[in-house]
Amino acid sequence: MLGGADALGYSVRVAARARARPAWLTPARPWLYLAPALAVYCLFWVGPAAYSLYLSFFDWDMVSPQKTFVYLDNYRRVLADPVFRVSLVNTVIYVGATVLLGTAIGLGLALVVQSLRRGREFYRFVVFLPVVTSITVITLIWLFLLNTQIGVVNQVLRLAGVAGPNWLNDPVTALLAIVVVGVWKGFGYNVVLFTAGLEGIDRELYEAAALDGAGRWSAFRHITWPLLTPVTLFVVVVGVIASFQVFATVQIMTRGGPANATNVLVYHIWEAAFRFFDVGYAAALATLLALLVAGLTVFQIRRGEEHVHYQ
Amino acid sequence: MFTTSKAAGGGGAGRDRVGAVASHAALMLVGAAVAIPYGWMVLLSFKPTAELFAPATWFNLSNLTLEGYRQVFERAPFGRWALNSLVVATALAAGQVLTSLLAAYAFARFEFRGREACFWLVLLTMMIPPQTLMVPSYVIVHQLGWVNTFSGLVVPHLAWGFGIFMLRQFFLGVPRELTDAAALDGCGSLRTLWHVHVPLARTALAALTIIAFVTAWNEYYWPLIVVNSEEMRTLPIGIPRFTGADLDIQWQATMAAATMATLPVLALYIAAQKQFREGISRTGLKG
């Protein structure tokens, strides 16, 4: 890097500077590197989390200087609120359906892509496109595709002699539409993760299995599936966290309707806070949702680790 | 390659050929399911809405116009929104990668009291949906006077769990001898970071920068909370403004705006697709 004499002079200078460094600096050094991230986390993460918990015990409309302490009233209201129950059920259905479908489609397609001799890169490229596209754009496209009058889906159904449903105005199909958009946007992420996982499996294992006379299914069952379990666990855990956050699709496509059929937890929080200015209530909801997702994540990792195999 | 696929398939060459054709057919279907909606987005942006009511006129290309694109700029400060998105995404990509680089270095290189606790905090921020903090975050941003400002859009997101996590994994793999050699050469820890770790992590850093940029460019929920002026909108919360009334959606302008918002990301993705996907799968596998 540096010439001999230069390097010598340089290191003497550096050593001198190092000796001159104050003693407190050494233990403080890692904290100096952590400081920027930690400062942001404290101000915009730990702070808000604590503040949210605090606000959940108060009645407040975000504008008036007065906050009224109401003890556990907000939590009581949440648990008694039928809309909360509906949005919880909708969220659970959405999370279950998107994670299940996204994981199954992701794994299935990854297996097919991996079996190809040519064109792997091309398909991986295509399925990943929705992952990098804005959820706004995707939702608006599907808003058109599912439009009752001019939507392509219903017009194609009409050509086939079927009267298509009124997708976004029917309680069942509306939630289904939200799920379809979620799966369409996310499955490519899983394909990429699973193909990377498949590439990490030692080919010799398959050759050994073939020598033992194992068929395709048997090889999948005893080699591919067990060795993919770390990836599967990751895909499911990340999928659950991400799909609990569903919001933009609902906010743009259905506004939670018809009759709360697509109301989900994050949308319910947003409505409570920024449409009805019921801050304490929104904070109580948010606290419950945070606990739910964090608890579920820890539970999945704990339970998952029991079933995960490493090569 | 040949032996591998035979071993995995376990069938004859003919069966392999049939399998390959079936695989391509299935993937073509999936590819169409992905590509066709994008095709409609572009087609709609050039097409008079009147022609959408019957399949017979879907592909009539004689009346294509740029009317939608003209309306986008006429009815809203679309250029300003694009600029806002560019500024926010660039600032976030640069800022997030920088804070992640420093924090990851601290986690990987040093042993200190509280390291585990801090790393758990980082993991926790990745587990809990940020939307659960929307109310208090908004109140804090409001107190700071940052509503409708770039600071409000950027600063609260400057710490990035994903980036810290990924770079820490990467730095843990940097051989001890390299850092020791740098120390013997008289490099302080900052110089070691700059001369040893950063060059080694160049691909990971590039991938992270692109991922951060695209994520920020597409971000919907936070700008929606912290911006309520027409001027400060970013593209994702600007585009829905073109839809108009529920029953009479202005498809042409909406899709013109959607197309223009998608192009930069698409270009970036095509240019750097490998880093992009590898960056994502690398973190994925080590989670």
Describe this structure as you would to a colleague.
The complex is a heterodimer of chains A (311) and B (287). Chain A is mainly α and 311 residues long. Chain A has two domains: 4-55, no CATH class; 74-307, Orthogonal Bundle (MetI-like fold), CATH 1.10.3720. Helix content of chain A is 75%, strand content 1%. Chain A has a two-stranded antiparallel ribbon. The radius of gyration of chain A is 27 Å and the shape is globular. Chain A starts with a helix and ends with a helix. Chain B folds into two domains: 2-65, no CATH class; 75-286, MetI-like (MetI-like fold), CATH 1.10.3720. Helices cover 72% and strands 0% of the residues of chain B. The chains are: A mainly alpha (311), B mainly alpha (287). The interface between A and B is large, with 113 and 108 residues.
Q: What percent of residues of chain A are in strands?
A: under 5%
Major sheet strand order of chain A: 1-2
SS-derived structural category of chain B: mainly alpha
Output the CATH topology of the largest domain in chain A.
MetI-like fold
> How many domains would you count in the coordinates of chain A?
2
Order of helices and strands of chain A: HHEEHHHHHHHHHHH
The largest chain-to-chain contact, stated as pair and per-chain residue counts, equals: A-B, 113 and 108 residues
Order of helices and strands of chain B: HHHHHHHHHHHHHHH
Summarize the entry for a quick read:
The complex is a heterodimer of chains A (311) and B (287). With 311 residues, chain A is mostly helical.
What descriptive keywords fit this protein?
heterodimer, A: 311 residues, mainly alpha, MetI-like fold, 2 domains, two-stranded antiparallel ribbon, 13 helices, 2 strands, 1% strand, B: 287 residues, 15 helices, 72% helix
